[in-house]
Model the fold of this input.
Amino acid sequence: MCRPKSLFIYLSLMIVANVMPGRSSGQASSTATGISRTMNPAISVNGLFWGQVSRDNDDPQFNRVALQEAEAQLTAIVDPFWKASFTFAVHPAHGHQHEGAADEPEETDGTEATSGFLLDVEEAFIDGRSLPAGLGLRLGRFYLPYGKHAPLHTHQYPFAEAPLGIRMFLGDHGLTETGARLAASVPLPWFSDLTLYGVNGDAEIFDGGNKDLVWGGRWTNLWDLTGTATLELGGSAFTGPDGSHPDEGKRLDVFGVDLTTKWISATRSQGPALNVTGEVILPRPEARPGTPLGWYALAQYRFHRNWWLGVTHGRADADAQQAAKTLPPFSALKQNEHTHGFTGEVWESKVNLTYAPSEFSALRLEVDWYDDRLGDTDDLRFILQWNFTIGSHPAHLY
Amino acid sequence: MKRQTSEFLVWTRPIALVALLVCLLWPGVTVAKLKVVATLSDLGWIAERVGGEDVEVEVLCPGDQDPHYLPAKPSLARKLRKADLLVYNGLELEIGWLPLLLDAARNPQVRPGSRGELDCALALTEILEVPTGPPDRSQGDIHPLGNPHYLSDPRNGAAVGQLMAARMAELDPAAADRYRQRADGLQADIASRIGQWEQRLMVIKEHPIVVYHKQWEYLLAWLGFELIGEIEHRPGIAPSPRHVEGVIQRGRQRGGVIVIAAPWNHLDAAQKAADRMAAPLVVLPAAVGSLDGVDGYFTVFDTICDLLTTAVADG
Done:
């Protein structure tokens, strides 16, 4: 039987012990409720904001300061067999009009509208930890491994927005899907990985009402050119029900090839580094005529430990309907949004300067130039973007 | 039935014979070596010394690269895929890249918690600079578990050798005695050299030390050197001019300062500060392979002795 005074002293000692300096987080294992927190997941939150000014476009959407995305990520080992990761993202609602009216709390595809923002379950998956033969199994909701850019979270983008080819053909909000994917290493003398997946097909480019799954895969190959430079060649493909013509049962096949070379100086910490990437996106929609093409090439160079310079150029054949969703409304293509098929091409060029004083914050100044080659409807935009992360954020992939 | 049995034997005997030959002749089956992957070149050198001909060792971070910022190249994950044992520094030195590589390697044998992963910091009897208050990132890229650069004290290298031997013996019991003997040999070699290194560096004790990055604390503590400042005030963050000026003023007041840095530090900033203190900048080998000719763990300390004593003699 424990007397109240003894209990008080015991609790006081426990509280003092838990706030004593020098105790590691692993030792501070108990909360006020007495529940262990040592098993809590690593938690991080990222805030991404931007301010834009458009020379040619008076739309408030392109002349405002706004939250671009807030993202929370939780990662932990589930048990000896699985590791889990969740990523929740909050976006301004106006960018998601295709998924439901912004002012209606309508739930679509794991996305819920609240107070002008949409909460999106970007990722929620488990990875197998003990599969034989070096196999990797992921179950849940995840970014499809298509190309180099599509699997990136928004705060990882090398420019303020995704390349036009990605936005035009893969959707404005990424290919995040629910299903399973299996990865295996290919027995070759260099790093070679093959990933295959089958997913439901909920992204905006697919017909979510169709019962057919989306099937696809990616083959990644990487060679060490030197001790500090690599060359990566990847091929991606998927096929699924086309969302541009729902209920018609048409297929959308998309192929892609990407080539990346990276060099990071070994002679100095946070020294010079160069990343050059090119990617070609080849959609083959059964429902729309033509052989559309999208591509981009980008280069990023770290010329000082905290400073990066970026430049990119690319183009995409534009479907008027998709252009109406994806492109700034300056485009003459939007004027013709009820036209079916690929009716024109849009070019983009961007330059940015990024100041990243640490791995956890960055300030970026960017100039974007869009040209739809239709005459007098170009657009010049100036963007200031800032990005910060708190908590235990996992390192980014190479 | 008898006829069927005969046919069965006719087919299975040659197959069994071939299988037996393969088992006898295939080196991967008969003389399998323990595949060890070391994150750092120092650990790789110790693993080779302890493992000898019983192990194959690969290193992820070459000695001339800063282990804080190693790019997590998929080609490094490939090395981990077939590893039986991963030996790593720990104390979160490799936090920026090793978890990514382990995920990409998909090798359950070396995942955290398995017998095939070895946190070498477990060998330490004392960890320096464990934060006394709650750490946060206003302090830069600090290591919440303490300063991870413990291999700059050779006594810790000997302890790590013993730890590796115990784990190698566990994974490869047939060679257990050999692992232990080699680890004992390493410990004896280090013990026999420590006195010489301390003797040679005795003259440095009179000189206050300024470092670029908080990387030499174990070396300084072992030798009893006096640290009076760091040019990089907060790890991983570019120092402010005001902070550098403060370090320079402190160095000028004390006089006789030596500035030391690792090869991958921002040496131009270190050189400017050293010049203003009228102090020599000495670029020390921070790991095996970090400078030309530094091809072993003992050579690291031999070279440190050479460079520091030369700097003082020239000074």
